[in-house]
């Protein structure tokens, strides 16, 4: 991408945030309406991909200086430890817990350990997608 | 608890080794390791008194209770003796290794981790009462010895030796597993003790002999019996402490242990006696005969170990005859089992010291080639003394412990001759004759080992290093063992009462209730009998053969190398497995993805259509189907056009757009059929994959370049059509047959109450079938790493210079 496409780049900066927040919304909405960790993760990475297309890999790397392999690993560990946690309190592997709480601002809401597991999925999807795109894109 | 735990103490201690090796560089790691066997030996020593009185100790730790698999530590005379050998000789070997292995040059952490792992494995083998855990530890000894033999892994010969020992012992171990499973099915238990109690019932069963042979195969491969001994000489590539430990005192004796342990179960069958005694004697003869041929010091010892193991094996076989006879003759065969155990102890002492001396010679002169050595007596007087004691004991000369057990061995073999069991008849005379000839050669190689190395002319110019006496630390262990060799000769009955008798009582529980019922007395002087005349004969003929060695040693060269068992092993490994199997693999592993897909899709189509056909599942009904709407039809047409565009496109860009159209159309179908989740995911996936294409677009080859005239191929067309038909049929028949109510209602009812969610798809993903998801993301992570590794590795290899700039 040698050309300096001002309009694309400016739009991308704004759209990036829109997609990214939408992906977070989709992620949290997942338990009751369409969405979830998998598609949320894909959306988040598509937001990054948009940046990659309008700028280039090097710029994006300096904006988001993550090691995406590390993101993948974090996700896997999070998912695994969520699944393994019940074993330490005498419940079978992969028992999920949930309850309803009243939180300030948000009001009555439900909290799930399943969401933590889903967050792991989210991170793995983002990590893997971005790892693949970065490695293939860099392979000049 | 503590008794079971002691088995695992070495391997638990091994966790600390890398830490100690990295942080405490100034102290040799071996000093820390030394604590473990000393502690364990002390612990086991506390059992000696009560076990000599006939007590046994058992402790259980459940592992897989539903399958009756448990870690059971069972200490009786036999397992205690072995445990003491493992930890005692282990301590001496570790002490020796501290001086043998340089703390700056060697990868000590690897070495000691393997060694401690091996110690746990060995303790597990001899203490396990549960056959499944016994097998587990058994194979662990194979693995840890593989690692130890291949310790200097950058040497070709080490790797070859390690692989060879592993191939042979693991193959035998698998056979043994089969035998164990058969025994467990027949006896209804995995416990060896319970099997022993049920032994009289087992003998009658159909597969008893089969199980017997399988278990023996395990024992024979491990204890290097003919014809499986070929791995032992190659295992000599291991560091000498390992050879002294694994290949003289412990691992190779696991087979002996197994035979001893299963004697009460199998002895009732004559096949057992035939095989154990026969193979044992053959091994004894074969090993002793070929030991004289070797030129490598450790090679001589390896063959001598082979032959000595054969000797012990044959005595165990002879001891099993005791189950078949009564009265006066009975005692003779009880004697054989006693002699076997006694010789086992003696062998551990003298062979351990000899291996250490071989290592010292190697360490201080730089070579183990006996042709270059000689005259070391004046330079290394201490080593010479120890070597002399060990060799004379091995040759069966007084006043060393080997003499006592060899006399007992001759007695046992002579009595087989006089005893007509299972129609041995007059052929029984063969047994003492073979035993006698083998003993002559044992005498010859013992002398060959010690005198060719230490006497004669010193050829200092041929040695890589200037020879000098070993440091005292390295000599401590062999000297201790040599002291044992002499002490045991003078107080044989102390050893006999405390260690041998309890072990014999454990081998022959049907004959003895308590160790003190074993009425064998070891005497150095047993009167002028046939045995003594035989010994004199051995010495005379042995001396003659040794002095004329140079003249007849060439006779070994008559046998061509092509006809050896090693050549057979190489043939099987190279020609049959390597080349033959590779050729077979290359037939179908062509590297063409198109062919692989043909195989895969073809077989799926055959299997699925075949199953549908056999199960008569082609029931198509269109009742209850929704009518096709106009927009659905439109989407279908778009889908078909998109697919055709992708296939027929002349430029890659068109193909990508065509593929995108297909994907989005499918997403629209999901929308129509009320699957917003799937639709959403499909849309995002399509977007991302198009982006991926764009990134890779620049690097893809031009379509025109790879274009080739594809001939119409009937096979491929058939596979394609079959797969298409299969998917269609599967979908249609899945819809038509509803034998069980849809699971949908269950989810609808429980999704809120059980999982507190509203979106069934998501709840299934993260909750009901969270296991699936966990593995899926793991696979995803692995795939990501794979792509990363593949591309980055290629980059770093090809464009390393560019990356650095």
Structural summary, described in words:
The complex is a heterodimer of chains A (140) and B (805). In chain A, α1 (6-29) runs antiparallel to α2 and α4 runs antiparallel to α5. The two termini of chain A are 13 Å apart. A two-stranded antiparallel sheet of chain A has the order 1-2. With 140 residues, chain A is mostly helical. Chain A is built from 5 helices and 2 strands, in the order ααααββα. The relative contact order of chain A is 0.16. Chain A has helices spanning 6-29, 37-54, 57-63, 68-88, 113-138; strands at residues 98-103, 107-112. With 805 residues, chain B is mostly helical. Chain B has helices at 2-14, 17-23, 29-45, 48-52, 77-100, 108-127, 131-149, 156-187, 192-202, 208-222, 231-234, 240-249, 253-266, 270-291, 297-320, 327-365, 381-395, 401-418, 430-454, 472-490, 492-507, 530-547, 549-552, 565-588, 593-614, 630-648, 652-672, 676-697, 703-706, 714-736, 744-755, 760-768, 770-798, 800-804; strands spanning 57-64, 69-75. In chain B, strands 1-2 form a two-stranded antiparallel ribbon. In chain B, β1 (57-64) and β2 (69-75) form a beta hairpin. In chain B, α6 packs antiparallel against α7, α8 (156-187) packs antiparallel against α10 (208-222) and α16 packs across α21. The two termini of chain B are 61 Å apart. The mean pLDDT of chain B is 84. Chains A and B meet through α2, α4 and α5 of A and α28, α32 and α33 of B.
What is the topological layout?
The complex is a heterodimer of chains A (140) and B (805).
Chain A: H1 6-29, H2 37-54, H3 57-63, H4 68-88, E1 98-103, E2 107-112, H5 113-138
Antiparallel strand pairs in A: 1-2
Helix pairs in contact in A: 1-2, 2-5, 4-5
Chain B: H1 2-14, H2 17-23, H3 29-45, H4 48-52, E1 57-64, E2 69-75, H5 77-100, H6 108-127, H7 131-149, H8 156-187, H9 192-202, H10 208-222, H11 231-234, H12 240-249, H13 253-266, H14 270-291, H15 297-320, H16 327-365, H17 381-395, H18 401-418, H19 430-454, H20 472-490, H21 492-507, H22 530-547, H23 549-552, H24 565-588, H25 593-614, H26 630-648, H27 652-672, H28 676-697, H29 703-706, H30 714-736, H31 744-755, H32 760-768, H33 770-798, H34 800-804
Antiparallel strand pairs in B: 1-2
Helix pairs in contact in B: 1-3, 1-6, 2-6, 3-5, 5-6, 5-12, 5-16, 5-20, 5-21, 6-7, 7-8, 8-9, 8-10, 9-13, 10-13, 10-14, 12-16, 13-15, 14-15, 14-19, 15-16, 15-18, 15-19, 16-17, 16-18, 16-20, 16-21, 17-19, 17-20, 18-19, 18-20, 18-22, 19-22, 20-21, 25-30, 26-27, 27-28, 31-32, 32-33
């Amino acid at each position: 991408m040698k050309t300096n496409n001002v309009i694309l780049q400016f739009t991308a900066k704004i759209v990036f945030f829109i997609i990214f927040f939408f992906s977070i919304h989709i992620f949290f909405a997942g338990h009751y309406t369409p969405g979830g960790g998998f598609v949320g993760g894909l959306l988040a990475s598509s937001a990054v991909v948009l940046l990659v297309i309008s700028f280039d890999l090097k710029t994006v790397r300096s904006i988001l200086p993550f090691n995406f392999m590390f993101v993948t690993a974090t996700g896997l560990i999070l998912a695994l430890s969520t699944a393994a946690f019940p074993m330490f309190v005498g419940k079978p592997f992969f028992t999920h817990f949930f309850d309803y709480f009243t939180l300030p601002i948000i009001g009555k809401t439900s909290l799930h350990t399943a969401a933590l597991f889903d967050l792991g999925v989210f991170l793995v999807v983002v990590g893997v997608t971005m790892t693949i795109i970065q490695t293939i894109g860099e392979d000049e | 608890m503590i008794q079971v735990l002691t088995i695992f103490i070495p391997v638990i201690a091994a966790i600390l080794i890398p830490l100690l090796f990295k942080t405490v560089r100034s102290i040799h790691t071996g000093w820390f390791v030394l604590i473990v066997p000393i502690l364990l030996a002390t612990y086991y020593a506390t059992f000696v008194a009560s076990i000599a009185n006939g007590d046994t100790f058992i402790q259980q730790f459940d592992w897989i209770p539903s399958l009756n698999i448990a870690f059971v530590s069972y200490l009786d005379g036999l397992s205690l003796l072995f445990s003491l050998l493992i930890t005692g000789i282990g301590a001496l070997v570790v002490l020796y290794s501290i001086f043998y292995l340089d703390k700056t040059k060697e990868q000590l952490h690897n070495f000691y981790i393997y060694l401690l792992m091996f110690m746990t494995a060995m303790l597990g083998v001899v203490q396990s009462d549960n056959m499944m855990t016994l097998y587990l530890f058994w194979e662990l000894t194979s693995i840890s010895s593989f690692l130890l033999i291949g310790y200097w892994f950058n040497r070709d010969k080490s790797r070859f030796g390690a692989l060879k020992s592993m191939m042979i012992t693991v193959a035998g171990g698998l056979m043994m597993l089969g035998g164990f499973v058969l025994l467990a099915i027949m006896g209804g238990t995995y416990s060896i003790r319970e099997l022993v109690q049920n032994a009289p019932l087992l003998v009658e069963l159909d597969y008893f002999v089969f199980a017997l042979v399988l278990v023996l195969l395990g024992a024979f491969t491990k204890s290097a019996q003919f014809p499986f001994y070929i791995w032992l000489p190659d295992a000599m590539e291991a560091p000498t402490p390992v050879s002294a430990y694994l290949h003289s005192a412990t691992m190779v004796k696991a087979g002996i242990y197994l035979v001893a342990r299963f004697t009460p179960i199998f002895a009732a069958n004559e096949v057992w006696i035939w095989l154990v005694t026969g193979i044992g004697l053959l091994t004894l003869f074969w090993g002793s005969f070929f030991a004289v041929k070797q030129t490598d010091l450790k090679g001589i010892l390896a063959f001598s170990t082979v032959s000595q193991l054969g000797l012990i094996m044959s005595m165990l076989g002879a001891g099993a005859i005791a189950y078949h006879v009564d009265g006066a003759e009975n005692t003779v065969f009880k004697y054989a089992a006693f002699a076997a155990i006694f010789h086992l102890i003696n062998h551990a002492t003298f062979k351990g010291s000899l291996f250490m001396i071989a290592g010292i010679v190697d360490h201080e002169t730089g070579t183990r080639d006996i042709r270059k050595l000689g005259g070391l007596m004046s330079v290394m007087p201490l080593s010479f003394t120890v070597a002399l004691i060990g060799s004379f004991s091995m040759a069966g000369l007084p006043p060393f412990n080997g003499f006592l057990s060899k006399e007992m061995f001759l007695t046992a073999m002579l009595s087989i001759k006089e005893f007509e069991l299972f129609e041995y008849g007059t052929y029984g005379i063969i047994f003492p004759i073979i035993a006698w000839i083998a003993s002559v050669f044992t005498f010859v190689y013992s002398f060959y080992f010690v005198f060719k190395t230490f006497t004669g002319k010193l050829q200092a110019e041929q040695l890589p290093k200037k020879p000098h006496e070993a440091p005292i630390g390295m000599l401590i262990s062999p000297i201790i063992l040599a002291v044992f060799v002499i002490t045991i000769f003078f107080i044989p009955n102390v050893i006999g009462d405390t260690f041998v008798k309890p072990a014999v009582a454990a081998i022959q529980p049907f004959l003895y209730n308590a160790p003190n019922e074993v009425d064998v007395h070891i005497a150095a002087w047993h009167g002028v009998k046939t045995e003594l005349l035989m010994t004199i004969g051995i010495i005379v003929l042995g001396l003659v053969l040794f002095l004329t060695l140079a003249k007849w040693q060439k006779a070994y060269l008559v046998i061509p190398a092509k006809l050896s068992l090693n050549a057979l092993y190489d043939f099987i490994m190279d020609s049959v497995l390597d080349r033959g199997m590779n050729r077979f693999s290359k037939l179908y592993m062509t590297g063409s993805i198109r062919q692989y897909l043909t195989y895969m899709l073809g077989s799926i189509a055959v299997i699925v259509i075949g199953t549908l056909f056999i199960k008569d599942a082609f029931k198509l009904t269109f009742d209850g189907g929704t009518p096709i709407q106009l927009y659905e039809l439109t989407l279908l047409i778009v889908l078909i056009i998109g697919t055709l565009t992708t296939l027929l496109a002349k430029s890659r860009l068109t193909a990508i757009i065509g593929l995108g159209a297909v994907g989005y159309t499918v997403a629209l179908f999901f929308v129509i059929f009320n699957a917003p989740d799937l639709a959403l995911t499909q849309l995002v996936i399509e977007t991302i994959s198009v982006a991926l294409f764009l990134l890779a677009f620049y690097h893809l080859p031009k379509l025109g370049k790879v274009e080739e005239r594809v001939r119409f191929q009937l096979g491929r067309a058939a596979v394609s059509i079959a797969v298409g038909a299969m998917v269609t049929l599967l979908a249609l028949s899945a819809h038509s047959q509803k034998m069980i109510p849809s699971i949908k209602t269950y989810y609808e009812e429980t999704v809120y109450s059980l999982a507190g969610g509203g979106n069934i798809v998501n709840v299934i993903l993260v909750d009901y079938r969270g296991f699936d998801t966990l593995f899926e993301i793991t696979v995803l992570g692995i795939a990501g790493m794979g792509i990363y590794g593949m591309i980055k590795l290629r980059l770093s290899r090809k464009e390393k210079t560019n990356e650095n700039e």
